[in-house]
Design a protein that fits this description.
4 copies of one chain form a homotetramer. Chain A is globular, with a radius of gyration of 18 Å. The first copy, chain A, is built from 6 helices and 8 strands; from the N terminus they run H-E-E-H-E-H-E-H-E-E-E-H-H-E. Chain A is 28% helix and 20% strand. Chain A has 191 residues and is an alpha/beta fold. Chain A has a 6-stranded mixed β-sheet. At the A-D interface, helix 2 and helix 3 of A face helix 2 and helix 3 of D.
């Protein structure tokens, strides 16, 4: 984990450098997302740890968190095997895996051989998956390489939501989560 | 879900009524836990939704959350099949399942036939599993019957942690979570 | 694993000693099941490895295998904590977990303090869960203590089915298994 | 499911048409595999149902089944999105996902626009994943499109193994399967 909070906390997180977007009508910028917590999932479509854990987790965040408070964004940060993870391959991947959250392609410098893309370089990411949490003021608050549990991820996002939050309303937004229903009441157990 | 925040928010959550404790040297009270967020998991040892989802989730919270900020407690709220879920049966269950978080047995009124136990009644719980979140000031902030996702549970707990929290330190406490390690860096993918 | 095939293969497997049955109108005997492969899952209701792996696996076998060819049976072999795993506790367990396969309670010798029950002793089982496979002629063919993968368990049962089996018909019986449906055809991927 | 046993059972299964192999020093042919049961997993690297279920299941078969009796083979049957699932992309996929079973690329007819590849066409597969079981005599015995449970798959493979099989030896080969160890014996429960 790299959480260089002393360096970073008082500065704005670097802006996203994206060459193309999926699942959004408008290009997204951190500047325009001020006022929301931003969760950024940096991944590669042929990284098993991304496909098996990080990307489904990001889809769950997109499905469960209140979109008025939390912006959930994917960033395709290809730093290897460029030939087989281009825009056309990603488009198939996004469609076949039915990903619905906005996904940007991290931009490569023009006129250069492809290496580490620009946003990945600006944040000095170590690899994929990487998680970035950016607060409502646009500051990078957490940067983690590798797998994160749902519990800790939820807790971290929660701590960035305003203290005056109405928990009852937050809870209501969870109604979109299908209830496993495996529960017992006075009549019976179900599940 | 019942989140009667208008009724409850300004009042203290009812105190726990417990006849015996496991996994704690001292009996626990909400009064003594002021200053921490309290997560209370009400369960029965023969409720499948508890054993398969809620109780392992509670164990994960106990393992992952910072114990100086979040108190994770189980409450055995037996409201049916009393003969086979007594103290001796629970003791075997706690040992065999290797549960390590503190667990109290919700008290039954003395001199009465066993029905709904006292804490369960005071909170008007609908069944098991039930989740209660109590803030640092001792107020009930969320009350939910049934299954809750790790993401939303983490988020709810996070919103009750103080706004001045040092995320880097919170993140460091996650080091106790085993990292799945399924990740790619410049050298290779692992996992 | 104990697979004492030299001792056992030419002899009949010891008969079940059962004090009570659930989920069957008639008591079951190995003698009456000649002509079917018998899969016997010996378990205890407070054994986590049983509840989390073995018992759900047994339920899946009961749901997926052709009942005209394979008899799937549970045996509650309580050898410890007798006071909290009696008949009344098991009855609640079977009902709450919605187990549908026949389950017998391994008999204890009358007039003796409870120890290892009679069937468990006759088979010299090491603990729970234990798996026994008995062929169509009534001979014990496999005896394994601990967890077994679904693939190997299916393979072992398959090798005991008659060679003249009509695979197409076997396959048709799999239609009862809900198809995950996560598949791609010429039109689209689903799942 | 298509199990055209009346048409197919007495005829040899069509030979594999493969343009390149991974994870095998020698090209594989059904002809050379006579005497073993062949399990063939037809998949595409960007088919989610393959990557999430079928391909890991195939890896488990390769790890658990006795290679002297059962040949487990993957076949990359690309019938769509050809540009992004070529040999170079598959090579990355096989390496990153650490697949160890032999995988052939189903051949396309030369001098034609790419469509359904030759082996896929010969077997009239409906899509991916598809499972083919070929007996020791080289006959197609089962053909199924979509997801199959481990239990039924194991059972089907088992029924094709010779009746004289020594179950104790088969069982011993399972020793390679890591034992979950979640079991109770006279001393304690573990897991």
């Amino acid at each position: 984990m790299t959480a260089n909070t002393t360096d970073i906390n008082n500065n704005l997180a670097p802006e996203l450098q994206v060459s193309a977007w999926f699942n959004t009508a408008q290009p997204l910028t951190l500047a325009a997302l001020r006022g929301k917590v931003v969760v950024l999932h940096a991944f590669q479509m042929l990284c098993p740890g991304c496909v098996q854990f990080g990307t489904p987790q990001t889809q769950r965040m997109f499905d469960e968190f209140d979109p008025d408070r939390v912006a959930v964004i994917g960033l395709h940060t290809v730093f290897e095997n460029h030939a087989v993870m281009g825009r056309d391959a990603l488009e198939v991947f996004v469609r076949e895996y039915r990903l619905r959250f906005p996904i940007g392609i991290d931009k490569h410098e023009e006129g250069q051989p492809k290496g580490i893309p620009m946003t990945m370089r600006a944040y000095r990411m170590q690899g994929t998956p990487s998680l970035l949490l950016i607060d409502k003021a646009g500051r990078l608050r957490l940067h983690k390489f590798g797998h994160v549990s749902d519990l800790m991820l939820g807790l971290w996002v929660g701590t960035l939501l305003p203290e005056e939050i109405d928990l009852a309303a937050v809870a209501a937004s969870a109604a979109r989560t299908p209830d496993a229903g495996a529960a017992c009441n006075a009549d019976r157990c179900s599940g």
